[in-house]
Structure formats: structure tokens, C-alpha cells
Design goal:
Blueprint (H helix, E strand, L loop, with lengths): L5 E7 L2 E9 L24 E3 L4 E3 L6 E6 L2 E5 L1 H7 L6 E9 L8 E9 L4 H14 L1 E9 L2 E10 L2 E7 L20 H13 L13 H14 L19 H8 L24 H4 L5 H13 L1
Helix pairs in contact: 3-5
Length: 299
């Protein structure tokens, strides 16, 4: 059973539900590399260097500061920084219940599982079922580790998930991105919709996918451990560049291949297909048919 990382109280109205927080994701799969000295293989140490004094300094000589203008800082002591920290109440304070469709997933940050603590089983299950029945999520504020988080409580199976959200000022507007002003043609849209429907699924099955890059990295690490010298890796040939959108859609739907990947130096007119050999034959003339029949009888 996973180990709880914190305890808290879900509070809304006069209801209080004791819960435990569990990490929803495992970080053990992440592969990291250490920095080593190339000559001897020893792990190097990073030191703090002051360019003005031209010497290495100790961590006890370090203070934190905020750059309010280029090269100008205001300094803060540890006590002053602690004053700025949000007081950890360990309370998940529900402020409102909103439709689940109203929150775009772009706001999603970290996720935590919530489990009932002692005496909270019944109220925990009641809140989970109420959220399922109403199709709503509970928007809540949660203060922990010196910060205040905007979160939602959403049902998952018979349980609850605490989903940490980004604040609006942390989300960039898509209007900052150059999207162009291309007009989509009806025929293109129809083919694109058809392509999407061909690959449509009604359920999400993440178990059908795996982290191929991590698997490849682990395999290479094992080969290095086994003393194998690696000179090259098998790589897939890059796909031909597709320029014509309509041809790319037709190819995806099972039609002819895109012209960008099949162009040759042939001078045949575009759009004309080669005539098969049996289609080129002309019907034999009557005299020729009689001669051929007589020849066959003579055999």
C-alpha cells in the first residue's frame, strides 16, 4: 500500500472529512544522469563562485534577493522569507461546486489521490457519489508547504482526486500564438472528419501505450553495463514531406499516395494512369479468327 504524504481536512459548510493525500504518479521511472569527470570517472561537485571577489564561497555566505532592475537587488533574510509563506492549515476548503465541463484541462497541474482517514469513510463516500451524480467538481483552496494552491476535488471510481490547478496568470493565452488566417475548404474538412472517425475510440486505454524512449534508454544502459561498445542505433527513415493537404488526406483514407513522396522524373501527363497490357489488345479481325481456327484444327 502506498504511503500517505500528508493528512488534511475537506471542509464545506459544517461538514469536515479527514483525508490522507497520496501521490498519484510514480517518479521512479525517470532516468537521470550524473555529471562525472571525463578523465577519472569521479562525480564532480558544483561550487558557488563569486565573480566579483573571484573566489569560491560557502553556502553560509549566501542570501536571497529579488532583481527589481537590471543588476539591482533587494535582499531578504530567512525570517523575512518565512513571513511571506502561506500558513499551512492542512484544510481543503471547498468554495463552490461547478460543472466538470467548465474547467479546461490546460489548468491541470499535479494530481493527488485522497483516501479517507479515521472516521471519515462515510462522509468521504457521500461526497464522491454526490459529485458523480451532479457531474460537478468541487473548487477548493488548499494551503500546504508555505503556498496556497487552487485545486479541484473530482471523483475517480469510488474515490476522490485532488487536482492542483494553475492560476490564470500562470496560463499563457493562445492568442499569443500566430495561428494564421487560412480558410478551411468544405472538402478538406469532410475528409479530415472522415479520417478522425476511422480512428475513433469510445474509451481511453493508456495501458496500450508505453514509454518507448525510456525503454530504449534502459536497454542502452544495460548494453553499456554489459561492456558492449555502441556505435550506432537503428533509426527509422524520415517520412517524405507532404505538401498537398488533399493528397495527404486521400492517402490517409486509403487512396493514392501523396505526390510529394512519389514524384519521379517521368514526363507522363499528371492524372493519367498506365493502361494494362491486356487492355491494349484490340479484338482480332474476322479473317484472322478463321485462319487461327483452321490452323488449330490442322494440329
Amino acid at each position: 500500500m502506498p504511503r500517505a504524504i500528508a493528512t488534511a481536512q475537506i471542509a464545506f459548510g459544517l461538514v469536515s472529512i479527514p483525508v490522507k493525500l497520496f501521490s498519484a504518479a510514480e517518479s521512479s521511472e525517470k532516468i537521470s544522469f550524473n555529471m562525472l569527470h571525463k578523465d577519472c570517472g569521479s562525480r564532480i561537485q558544483q561550487q558557488l563562485f563569486c565573480p566579483k571577489d573571484e573566489r569560491t564561497i560557502d553556502r553560509t555566505e549566501v542570501v536571497k534577493g529579488y532583481e527589481f532592475a537590471r543588476g539591482q537587488y533587494v535582499l531578504f533574510s530567512e525570517d523575512e522569507l518565512k513571513m511571506l509563506e502561506e500558513k499551512s492549515t492542512q484544510t481543503i476548503d471547498i468554495t463552490e461546486f461547478i460543472p466538470s465541463t467548465e474547467i479546461d484541462p490546460i489548468y491541470f497541474s499535479k494530481a493527488y489521490y485522497l483516501g479517507p482517514d479515521k472516521g471519515g469513510d462515510r462522509a468521504y463516500s457521500l461526497l464522491s457519489k454526490a459529485l458523480q451524480e451532479t457531474g460537478r467538481w468541487a473548487l477548493a483552496k488548499y494551503a500546504a508547504r508555505g503556498k496556497q494552491y487552487l485545486t479541484i476535488l473530482r471523483p475517480l471510481g469510488n474515490g476522490l482526486v485532488l487536482q492542483q490547478l494553475y492560476y490564470p496568470n500562470e496560463i499563457r493565452s493562445i492568442d499569443e500564438i500566430e495561428l494564421g488566417d487560412t480558410i478551411v475548404k468544405d472538402t478538406e474538412l469532410k475528409m479530415a472528419v472522415q479520417l478522425a472517425e476511422m480512428g475513433a475510440s469510445e474509451e481511453f486505454h493508456p495501458e496500450n501505450y508505453r514509454d518507448e524512449q525510456t525503454e530504449k534508454t534502459r536497454a542502452m544502459i544495460q548494453r553499456k553495463i554489459d561492456g558492449e561498445e555502441i556505435t550506432s542505433l537503428d533509426t527509422q527513415e524520415p517520412r517524405a514531406q507532404v505538401i498537398d493537404l488533399m493528397e495527404a488526406l486521400r492517402a490517409s483514407l486509403g487512396g493514392s499516395r501523396p505526390a510529394a513522396s512519389t514524384r519521379t522524373s517521368s514526363t507522363k501527363p499528371a492524372g493519367k494512369l498506365p493502361i494494362r497490357a491486356e487492355q491494349k489488345r484490340k479484338p482480332a479481325k474476322p479473317a484472322a479468327r478463321k485462319a487461327a481456327a483452321a490452323k488449330s484444327k490442322a494440329r
